[in-house]
Amino acid sequence: MVTLTIDNRKISVPEGTTIMKAAASVGIMIPHLCYLEGINEISACKVCVVEMQGKTKLITACNNPVEEGMVLFTNSPKVRSVRRTNVELILSQHNSNCATCVRSGNCNLQKLSNDLGIIDIPYEKEITEMPWNNSFPLIRDFGKCIKCMRCVQFCDKVQDLHIWDVQNTGSRTTVDVSRNRRIEESDCSICGQCITHCPTGALRERDDTAKVFRALADPETITVVQVAPAVRAAWGEALDLPAYMATEGRMAAALKKIGFDYVFDTNFSADLTIMEEGNELLARLADPEEKRWPMFTSCCPAWVRFLKSQYPDMADHLSTAKSPQQMFGAVAKSYFAEKIGVDPGKICSISIMPCVSKKMEATLPDMYSAGGGADVDIVLTTREFARLVRAEHIAPALLTEEAFDSPLGESTGAGVIFGVTGGVMEAALRTAYYCVEGVNPPADTFSDVRGFEGRREAEFSLGGRTLRTCTVSGLKNARDLIEDLRAGTVHYDFVEVMACPGGCVGGGGQPILDGVEMADVRGPRLYKLDEQRPLRFSHDNPGIKKLYAEYMGAPLGEKAHQLLHTHN
Q1: pTM above 0.85?
Q2: Cα separations (Å) of 270 from 16, 310, 541?
Q3: Phi-psi category of 136—alpha, beta or left, where left has phi over 0 and alpha has psi -120 to 50?
Q4: Which residues of the chain have pLDDT under 50?
Q5: Any residues with CB less than 8 A from the CB of 49 and at least 6 apart, and which?
Q6: Residue-level pLDDT at 533
Q7: Where are the beta strands (DSSP E) in 374-500?
Q8: Would you call 83 helix, strand, or coil by DSSP?
């Protein structure tokens, strides 16, 4: 242990602890812009400077370890003066039009500037502006980049895609797509993790809220909206709504208040996905000639994009089942359109997702299967949903809870847990067990697949054979898994991969709490909802049974294959 004094308070911390962590251990929060614990500790911003007794120069707290007998001051006049100058220099190269920035009110640079009392910038403004394809789902604003390196480090160390890199030197230094590529030429998975870890508005999703307002205002258009399971675990954060008030019922009520004609739950099509994907797994297991092992889940478009760009020879290991978003869109513009007696082309199918990559998924060639144009017309992130609520001046806390509409609003606990890593695997195994054994297992039989450690192995008995499973979240973990599979050091039958650490609850379209990872907070909320559901097995969903009986025929049938599976 090392004993030191911070702001006249003597403390003891383990040797090797950084000054930043030592201060935080006693409730002293040192301001910073670039720091992400364990990921970006390179002191790019020089905002976390502190004064050390006996030294003339200030030192950075994020990457300097404590020493025995240190006496530190984290907010002395000298520290405040230097910190203010450093922030002013950053602002001199920053587009400070906060009123038109999506991060206004949730921006670390804005907060720090206010805390330091910066009103005027005494340096000449030099803002870098560079062209960008604004139709791409991920948008970069060079004028707001503060060169903190968070996007570079997160993409390199956690996602292992190396999309971002430093360009130029000196005052011309900036961050851009690596290897002089345009973003659409890169192998970016569009996971959006760079967005959620950016401290400013330099990175954001393409805003599609105006398209939604146009659809809502058109009396000839029937607006059908679906909400993904992970959204309900986080939507209240963006609206300052306590978790106990941010219920599914209030979320549905807010959407109806906005003016959507039909408000449905993507959990319904998550159950549908399980019926198709679970039966596909069983069909592969029953085929002695089948060589595509393991079978990979296909629900996460960022993971699918990663696999097809990095390991195209393994793309046929993917389940052919579409994601719940796309299954819902296809059903909405076929079965549901028939139910309400309208032309599918009059339906505007909108989804609210915790994901940025879903925006790209909706435009893929296979996603126009129902005969009414794109199966999903507009995709919004959870953050965009919050902007809709604010734009309509809705106070969710004052709303009375409402149910999702029928017949596509019924769901089970198995559909709910899709939003957390391991959830797709667990839900599929619940139904696969029923299909093989003829009875439902205890609902938590397959809970060994749960966990936030990034990669988790489990084995289960299914129909007299051992089924080897692996759940993975984060693309670096996915790459390591595939390299192990190629090397023959591991063998699995069924693998679930989610591109975002922790699964969709930690998705790139979720509300941003700067420097805080929320997946392990949001995930348990979905497991709690699963426990509370009267039905916890996808095959028990009465709406799913009715859909197959009235329209699809059976899982993996001709109609299901046409609407619910990819064909490339």
Answers
A1: yes
A2: 46, 27, 11
A3: beta
A4: none
A5: 58, 59, 60, 61, 79, 82, 83, 86
A6: 95
A7: 378-381, 455-462, 465-473, 494-498
A8: helix
User: Is 503 in contact with 422 (CB distance < 8 Å)?
Assistant: yes
CA 338/CA 260 separation, integer angstroms:
19
- At residue 296, the 3 state secondary structure works out as strand
Please report, for residues 9, 304, 362, 455, the alpha-carbon distance to residue 309 in angstroms, rounded to integers and kept in the order given: 53, 9, 18, 21
* Rounded Cα gap, residues 490 and 35, in angstroms: 36
User: How much is the pLDDT for 568?
Assistant: 66
Measured distance CA(265)–CA(352) in Å, rounded = 10
Rounded Cα gap, residues 410 and 404, in angstroms: 8
Cβ within 8 Å of residue 384, ≥6 positions away = 205, 207, 208, 209, 352, 509
Q: Which residue has the tokens 């720090």?
A: 112
Question: Nearest CA to 451 among 477, 479, 480?
Answer: 477
- Cβ contact 504:357 at 8 Å: no
Q: Tokens at residue 333, please?
A: 């513009």
Strands 174-177 and 494-498 come out as unpaired
Query: Shortest CA distance to 266 belongs to which of 4, 561, 543, 559?
Result: 543
For tokens 């922790």, the residue is 502
pLDDT of residue 44: 83
Q: What pLDDT is recorded for position 389?
A: 98
State residue 463's pLDDT score: 87
Contact by Cβ (8 Å): 355, 301: yes
For 151-206, give the DSSP string: HHHHHHHTS----EEEES-GGG-EEEEGGG--GGGS------HHHHT-SSSSEEEP
Q: Which amino acid is at 352?
A: I
Distance, C-alpha 165 to centroid of its chain: 22
Cα 342 to Cα 155: distance, rounded to the nearest angstrom: 45
Residue type at 292 in one-letter notation: R
